[in-house]
Amino acid sequence: xxxxxxxxxxxxxxxxxxxxxxxxxxxxxxxxxxxxxxxxxxxxxxxxxxxxxxxxxxxxxxxxxxxxxxxxxxxxxxxxxxx
Length: 83
What we know:
This protein has one helix spanning 26-45, and strands at residues 3-9, 14-15, 21-22, 51-58, 64-72. The chain is α+β, with helices and mostly antiparallel strands and 83 residues long. Strands 1, 2, 3, 4 and 5 form a five-stranded antiparallel beta sheet that branches. A hairpin with a 5-residue loop joins β4 and β5 (64-72). The longest helix is centred in the middle third of the chain and has 20 residues, at 26-45. It is elongated and about 55 Å long. The N and C termini lie far apart (55 Å). Residues 3-70 form the DUF6894 domain.
């Protein structure tokens, strides 16, 4: 089975996957990487600060095959509500 590497970045912490995981194909690795995004965002989004979360899937040669991002931007519509 081919080995793929999933890197992640939440704006504060960049994780470069040096070990990798075996997957049947790149699509399986992409699905796992995409599923990681909401988990990465869950804690940081509570602060209300704008944030961007990134995942990348690389193959054994180091070539980036897939990149996914999830962005959060929140804004008060009524400034008095934030007081």
